[in-house]
Write a structure and sequence with these properties.
The complex is a heterodimer of chains A (191) and B (571). Chain A is mostly helical and 191 residues long. Chain A is 81% helix and 0% strand. Chain A has one domain: Cytochrome c oxidase, subunit III, four-helix bundle (Four Helix Bundle (Hemerythrin (Met), subunit A)), CATH 1.20.120. In chain A, helix 4 packs antiparallel against helix 5 and helix 6 packs antiparallel against helix 7. With 571 residues, chain B is an all-alpha fold. Classes of the chains: A mainly alpha (191), B mainly alpha (571).
């Protein structure tokens, strides 16, 4: 299947098909995280004592990771800008920097979880910690998936192929960033 | 490739019919939307046979408790629970969805909008592969230690969450994984359907020129995508409760079992419309073709469907009237539930108004379409009793509920599928089906169907609880009158299942020896009838892709000699 089907090349709405698909993907992601966080908030309102458990989260680790993700979103924008002007190699470099951000985020996260688990706060300690690990874990999986896909796109971009995909992974990456912006205050800061 | 002329293209396709893998792999590893449609169709048909066999076994146990069921043996209580649970799960997730949405969506959307394939052919293939694995997981779960999951297709915790309660720890987890994989498959497929309809339409095809069945499948996909998320989150939580010992649904650990019911039904009720809309779309297209009359109120219908979709997100708690929710909330959900019958009734009236004054041809597909309207109406009207919280407290979890939703799901999943199959069979396989055998199969299905479920309405009104393995254990429920109704239902089921053999015979005979189908056997207007039967790879020669000049329902116009006006015919 070398040639793309005619269907793929059409654009009746005027919006590129890939961009449409990513937005629909994000719509389905929004309701997944929406369901999880909605459940968490309802429980949290009914259990004021969870504030005590939340006080044991590592706020500074979370804050540092927020900074890391925001910075990586910035490099994703720079990659998009480079791809728009047809500079595949430059876009690939910025994508690799974004992947570096993802890696840093995951490293910090694993150190943070090690500290928490060694203090005896595991996923079965109580329902707050269950939500904490489930929500952050699901988000972490999105970070991993995003970084892997970004690797493929960076290789293509380096060779000057499929440059429109740099924008698409960027949209996805902003979403991953945005989910964390919700998770951080809800899980770490709310006392 | 695009510059090739039609002759060159035909010559190429004779020697080299299909690009990509050849031989058996061509069917297993193809990205062609028609092949993927067949994969979904045949997997769905196989699962329907499995689900039908399960229904046969537990209906036999109910009618003749304790006796050995031919082909299965003596049914133990655990097996009974597993059979009813997996019958429900399979019929909805592995029959109704793959056949109505995936098989017909894949086949019809590109053909009806004049495209050569889906916009993401490889994602399409991945969607089927994930779906196929999910089917293997659910079938495998029936044979693991402890047997298949037996906590009902709604999987309420704590029964579903703890192995010590449901006795099927492995079956329960595999069930959950199977359902989750199925969701992934339909999210992938759904994105493809939506973007294909939005972007890949033939030149000239405007929003109101799209055949209704395409709209319906795409609106259903949108509903699915927007409703399934919370259940995916809920399924992850349930999986952790089962395997890691968390307490999301365990009050003793600070969780709440009713949370699952909200997450499940927030998906579960839109899901009813997810499978219903494609069936309605199929009915509309068939009714317009066989009434030879323009669809009454295209825009009305489209906007009504959108309204139904929006409303369907606000009715879910009518499943929890007796789960201890606040009575004020129950009132709100009662109002929204009764409200949603308004747009549905409107859809029915639009179809009936299309029939009015038409020159109706009662071919087999039309019979199925008309039966859909008649039987679905019974399902809809009985739903009003259940939507009213006062009546629901009495009817909850009785056979009345069961009969009600079978009067909706059977028309959707079975009647809708047969309508579509008999209508598009010539296009899918290039052969005509026997109309006579089709009509025998039709009456042999519709009459017993009513004999199965009308007795169950009566049983439900008699207060019969629906999850009982053997009524002899409950002397006041096991009266001879009640038992007689159960036997009528079971015998009717046996008759109906026997008549399905006529369908399979007709299907295989038509494939092998059927009369060759012309391009447009029903004189229909939509684009799929402008190409060969069956359509070649790519659907049309690349330089002859259709253009669209008008809407899909221009039948019986007085200013024209022929009573139809194909969408691609220049004015």
């Amino acid at each position: 299947m070398s040639a793309k089907p005619i269907a793929t090349t059409r654009s009746a709405t005027g919006i590129p098909t890939g961009r449409l698909a990513v937005w629909w993907l994000l719509a389905s992601e929004v309701v997944i995280f929406g369901g999880l966080l909605g459940s968490y908030i309802m429980h949290r309102v009914g259990h004021p004592e969870w504030a005590e458990a939340a006080a044991h989260t590592q706020v500074w680790f979370g804050a540092f990771n927020t900074l890391v993700l925001l910075t990586s979103s910035f490099t994703a924008v720079l990659a998009h800008q480079a791809a728009e002007s047809g500079q595949g190699k430059k876009a690939a470099k910025f994508l690799v920097m974004t992947m570096g951000g993802a890696l840093t985020f995951l490293l910090v996260k694993s150190i943070e979880w090690t500290i928490e688990i060694s203090h005896g706060y595991t996923i079965t300690t109580n329902t707050f910690w269950s939500f904490y690990y489930t929500a952050a874990g699901l988000h972490g999986l999105h970070v991993i998936a995003g970084a892997i896909i970004m690797g493929f796109i960076a290789v293509d971009a380096w060779r000057g192929r499929e440059l429109q995909r740099v924008e698409l992974i960027g949209i996805y990456w902003h979403f991953v960033d945005l989910v964390w912006i919700f998770l951080f205050p809800l899980l770490y800061i709310a006392k | 490739m695009v510059e090739a002329t039609a002759e060159v293209w035909h010559a190429q396709h004779e020697v080299h019919e299909h690009h990509g893998p050849q031989g058996v792999l061509k069917y297993l590893w193809s990205t062609d939307h028609k092949v993927i449609s067949m994969q979904y169709l045949f997997t769905g048909m196989f699962m329907a046979v499995v689900g039908g066999f399960m229904a046969y076994v537990f209906r036999m146990q109910l009618a003749f408790p304790g006796s050995s069921v031919p082909g299965f043996g003596i049914v133990s209580p655990g097996e009974y629970n597993s059979l009813v649970t997996n019958h429900g799960s399979i019929m909805i997730f592995w029959v109704a969805m793959p056949v109505l949405i995936a098989a017909f969506g894949n086949f019809l959307i590109p053909l009806m909008i004049g495209a050569d394939d889906m916009v993401f052919p490889r994602i399409n293939r991945l969607s089927f592969q994930v779906f196929f694995i999910s089917a293997l997981v659910i079938l495998g779960s029936l044979f693991v230690e402890g047997g298949g999951f037996g906590g009902a297709w709604t999987a309420y915790p704590p029964l579903s969450a703890k192995g010590v309660y449901n006795q099927t720890p492995l079956g329960a987890t595999l069930w959950l994984i199977g359902v989750a994989l199925e969701f992934v498959a339909f999210l992938l497929g759904g994105i493809n359907f939506i973007t294909t309809l939005m972007n890949a339409r033939a030149p000239g095809m405007k929003a109101y020129d799209i055949p209704m069945v395409c709209w319906m499948i795409v609106i259903a996909s949108i509903l699915f995508m927007l409703s399934v998320g919370p259940l995916i989150a809920g399924a992850v939580m349930l999986l952790f409760d089962q395997t890691l010992g968390t307490g999301f649904y365990d009050p003793a650990m600070g969780g709440d079992p009713v949370l699952w019911q909200h997450l499940f039904w927030f998906f579960g009720h839109p899901e009813v419309y997810v499978v219903m809309l494609p069936a309605i779309g199929i009915t509309i297209d068939i009714v317009a073709t066989f009434a030879r009359k323009k669809l009454f109120g295209y825009k009305l219908m489209l906007y009504t469907t959108v309204a139904t979709g929006v409303l369907s997100f606000f009715v879910w708690a009518h499943h929890q009237f007796i789960s201890g929710i606040d009575p004020r909330m129950a009132n709100v959900f009662m109002v929204t539930t009764l409200l949603i019958s308004v747009p549905i009734a409107e859809l029915m009236f639009v179809i009936i108004a299309t029939l009015y004054g038409g020159s109706i041809r009662l071919a087999t597909p039309m019979l199925w379409a008309l039966a859909f309207i008649a039987e679905f109406l019974i399902g809809g009207v009985t739903g009003i009793f259940l939507g009213a919280s006062g009546a629901d407290i009495y009817f909850h979890d009785t056979y009345f509920v069961l009969a009600h939703f079978h009067y909706t799901f059977f028309p959707i999943a079975i009647i809708g599928t047969f309508a579509a199959l008999t209508y598009w069979f010539p296009k899918m396989f290039g052969k005509m089906m026997s109309d006579k055998l089709g009509k025998i199969h039709f009456w042999g299905t519709i009459i017993p169907f009513n004999f199965i479920f009308i007795p169950l309405f009566v049983l439900g009104m008699g207060g019969q609880h629906r999850r009982i393995y053997n009524y002899q254990h409950f002397p006041d429920l096991a009266g001879a009158d009640f038992q007689r109704l159960r036997i009528i239902a079971t015998v009717a089921l046996l008759v109906m299942l026997a008549f399905q053999l006529v369908f399979f015979y007709n299907f295989i005979r038509s494939l092998l020896r059927g009369e060759k189908a012309p391009k447009n056997p029903w004189n229909a207007n939509t684009l799929e009838w402008t190409t060969e039967s069956p359509p070649p790879h790519g659907n049309w020669p690349p330089d002859q892709m259709p253009k669209v000049y008008r809407g899909p329902y221009e039948y019986g116009r007085p200013d024209r000699e022929s009573d139809f006006w194909p969408q691609d015919e220049p004015a």
